[in-house]
Each structure stands twice: as C-alpha cells, then as structure tokens.
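User: My instructor asked us to take a sequence, write out its structure as tokens, and then describe one feature of it. I'm not sure where to start. Here is the sequence I was given:
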Amino acid sequence: MNVALWIAAGLLAAIALASGAAKVFLPKAKLDELGAKSGGGWTEHASPVFVTTLGVLEILAAAGLILPAALDIAPVMVPVTAVCWILLMIGAMITHARYQQYKYVVLNLVYLVLAAFVAWGRFGPESFTG
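Assistant: Let's start with the prediction itself. The structure tokens for your sequence are:
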C-alpha cells in the first residue's frame, strides 16, 4: 500500500506542478487562448492575480505532496497537503460546473479521489510515523 500511496502522491504532484507552472509562467492571454481551444476557458473570467495565485498554490501542493516525506521533515504535511488539494478540487469542480465544463468536473473528481486516498492512507494505515 505504501507504494500505491507514493504513486498517487507522485501523480498528483506532477499534475499540480504542470498546472501550477502554466498558470504562473504563461501569460494570461495565452492561458485564455489554450482554455478556449480545450474547452476550459474559465481563465477568461478570472483576474490575472487570481490565476497566478492558484498557480502558486498548485506548485506548493506539488512540493507538499512529495518533499516532506522524501526529506523526512514533517512528513505529516503530506496528508495535510492532500486535504488542502481536496478543497482546491472542490472549488475547481464548482467552477467548471458553473461553466458547464463537465468533463473537467469529472477529471477534478478523479484528482480529488486520489488526494483522498493519500490523505486517508497517510493519516491512517500507512502513516510515515507508524
């Protein structure tokens, strides 16, 4: 189970890092254009500061899902980060549902389930301290 939890956390971290880096480093106009092409498009209605803030939070989540356990410094931060990711995914699901982007709602639900698995596993049966 430990391996499955590491894989889930690694997948979530990779997704968070890629998504966060795009939001932080791509110009908002480019994000708007990419979103319009892919059916996302919510960034058109969001401020640049909000989009960048979400990007920074996603980059921090990527670090929080891996680094505390890998470096053995406050490994309890892994499940705490997973819970924060769950809250972020709830917000993403609500946003995408408001724009009737249901395929993204389902995708965010998958990410939420992965994060719930990590949180449950690391708070419970496969904690780093046990």
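For the description part of your assignment, you could build on this observation: Residues 2-123 form one domain. Try explaining in your own words what that tells you about the chain.
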